[in-house]
User: Which sequence fits this backbone?
C-alpha cells in the first residue's frame, strides 16, 4: 500500500487545477490581444495593462463603436469630455490619456496630431528693468561716491 505525503498531494492538486481551468466565457478580440502583446513587449506590468485596456474599453462603451473605427475628432471630443464635463481626477485623466495614446499610436500605428504633436512651452517671461525716476538715479549716483 502506497501512502502519499501532504506535499505530493498538494502538487497533484495544483496540476489538476491547472489542467481543469475553465475556458473564458467570451473570446478576447484580436485587437485586444494585439494591444496586450504590444504592452508585454514594452514591459508594462499587469496593473498598467489592465488600466490601459480599461481606458480603451470605456472609450468603446462611450461611443458604442469599436475603437479602431473612431475618428481622431471623436477621440479628442471624448478626451475633452473626460476633462471638462466629467472632471476626472488628474491621475485618472493621465492614465486614460496614455492608455489611449498607446492604443492608437503603438498598437494601431495611427499618426494623429492629437497624440504626436509636441507640447509647445511658452517662453519664460523675462522681467523688464525697473525704471527709476531721475531724482532717484541722481541720489543713488551721488551716494555711491567718487
Assistant:
Amino acid at each position: 500500500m502506497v501512502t502519499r505525503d501532504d506535499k505530493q498531494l498538494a502538487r497533484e492538486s495544483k496540476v489538476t487545477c491547472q489542467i481543469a481551468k475553465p475556458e473564458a466565457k467570451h473570446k478576447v478580440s484580436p485587437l485586444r490581444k494585439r494591444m496586450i502583446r504590444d504592452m508585454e513587449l514594452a514591459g508594462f506590468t499587469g496593473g498598467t495593462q489592465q488600466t490601459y485596456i480599461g481606458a480603451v474599453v470605456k472609450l468603446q462603451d462611450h461611443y458604442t463603436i469599436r475603437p479602431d473605427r473612431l475618428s481622431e475628432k471623436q477621440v479628442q471630443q471624448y478626451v475633452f469630455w473626460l476633462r471638462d464635463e466629467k472632471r476626472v481626477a488628474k491621475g485618472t485623466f493621465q492614465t486614460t490619456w496614455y492608455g489611449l495614446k498607446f492604443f492608437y499610436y503603438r498598437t494601431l500605428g495611427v499618426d494623429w496630431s492629437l497624440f504626436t504633436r509636441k507640447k509647445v512651452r511658452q517662453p519664460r517671461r523675462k522681467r523688464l528693468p525697473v525704471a527709476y525716476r531721475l531724482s532717484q538715479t541722481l541720489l543713488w549716483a551721488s551716494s555711491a561716491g567718487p
Observations:
- Residues 11 and 17 are 10 Å apart (CA to CA).
